[in-house]
Amino acid sequence: MNIESINPVNGEIIKTYTPHSTDQVKQKIRQTHEAFLGWKDISFTRRAEYMRKTSEILKKRKQEFAELMALEMGKPVKAGVGEIEKCALACEYYAEHAAAFLSDETIKTDASKSYVTFKPLGVILAVMPWNFPFWQTFRFLAPGLMAGNCGVLKHSSNVPGCALAIEEVIREAGFPPNVFQTLLIGSSAVESVIEDPLIKAVTLTGSTSAGIKVAQKAASLLKKSVLELGGSDPYLILKDADLPVAAGICAESRLINSGQSCIAAKRFIVEEEAAEKFIPLFKEKMASQIMGDPLSENTQIGSQARTDLRDQLHQQVLQSIEKGAKCILGGEIPAGKNAFYPPTILTNIKKGMPAYDEELFGPVASVITVKNEEDAIKVANDTSFGLGSAVFTRDLQKGEDIAANRLNAGCSFVNDYVRSAPDLPFGGINQSGYGRELGSYGIKEFVNIKTIYIK
Question: Is 406 helix (H, G, I), strand (E, B) or coil?
Fold first, then answer.
């Protein structure tokens, strides 16, 4: 079956791609392994030169790639430019810091010399999602290549153009041939790729169900895996918060990437004393965003990536309403052949509703009113996920204590929205996955932490 790139704004087929055959996939993996045999011995200085060149190309072609994302998955072009700039920043960050992150560490023992050294593993399989088609890939690719690994990419089937564009950038930057290649394959072919003995590890960003399948296959072959999965991030709005500021930040977070982000705010847990003022402010901010053509510079909310995903989101909204939730904004599918969904706010949320228990991957906010701070923390932690979290309060000491010690998540922010950045380790716990990307921790996920002992 061919792979089709479909514009979610109008349902038109942009381009059709012929998938790689089983033999072609094996050949590409073998080519990438052969490239690794030379790449692993190239100095950090030389690797950094290639990486800085990659950053230059990304900056030069950012408008082109932003428009490609707008066409393939509906991202507003302005946000797409920001995504490409972030990829360039990651390239520069690891070009500058990789050598220090992976420098030998001396260990004092009874030996004449003992130390830990960090060596690349080989070819890493990256299984990446459509929502940030460049950023998700580069946050694996930049540290991976700088560590001396090589990579093959199985990208989401609705963004094949983006996948091939990333491969093109690496070639244009002058990297040795085949250090990174795209595999045009469907999800059903992922297991056979993991089984290839030349694949040494796998990283996946995606749904919890996809993560479980990949983790099981990798574990059965004793291969390392890193998983960044779904989230239902709680944002606590305490009664002493600066409510106008909190409302703006919360709306911005909920609507990042048209609501299609694993670390977007999902559940807004508001203390009773703050709810009467916060909810109207929040509604105003959510309603003010401009939804429209992703290719327009004025658009703030683009299309959802696919109509089936939009329809699934709408069903979660309807099921929550059937169970007693109240829709105070949005909640209706626009007319026409498109995948748009408006900013939506649900209140009166209770346990047992999809809006409480599940991840709503789109511009839908679940507002949960609680009596006090203790209840807010309990509700925040009442989830199977554990990716991001945030707390809004004027008491910074209290906010830090809640963030650091009382919220169960891979990252917790105070008075700001959760985000990923090259210098901060990123990942989750529980059903949100394991392992870390980015920062000094991310680059060490796919290396052999090797002990050297000389008597």
Answer: helix
Instruction: Report pLDDT for 386.
Output: 98
* 388-444 tens-digit pLDDT: 999 999 999 999 999 999 999 999 999 999 999 999 999 999 999 999 999 999 999
145 by DSSP, 3-state: which? helix
In whole angstroms, give the CA distance from residue 49 to residue 46: 5
Alpha-helix residue ranges (DSSP H) falling in 61-183 = 62-73, 77-101, 135-146, 160-172
- As annotated, the active-site residues are 228, 262
Do 266 and 174 lie in one domain? The reply is no
CATH of the domain at 359: 3.40.309.10
Residues 279, 283: Cα–Cα separation, whole Å: 6
Pair (13, 110) in one structural domain: yes
Q: Tokens at residue 354, please?
A: 């999809």
Per the structure block, which two tokens stand in for 50? 């290639």
**Together in a domain, 56 and 105:** yes
Alpha carbon 138 to its chain centroid, in Å, reads: 11
Residue 59 sits in a domain of what CATH number?
Answer: 3.40.605.10
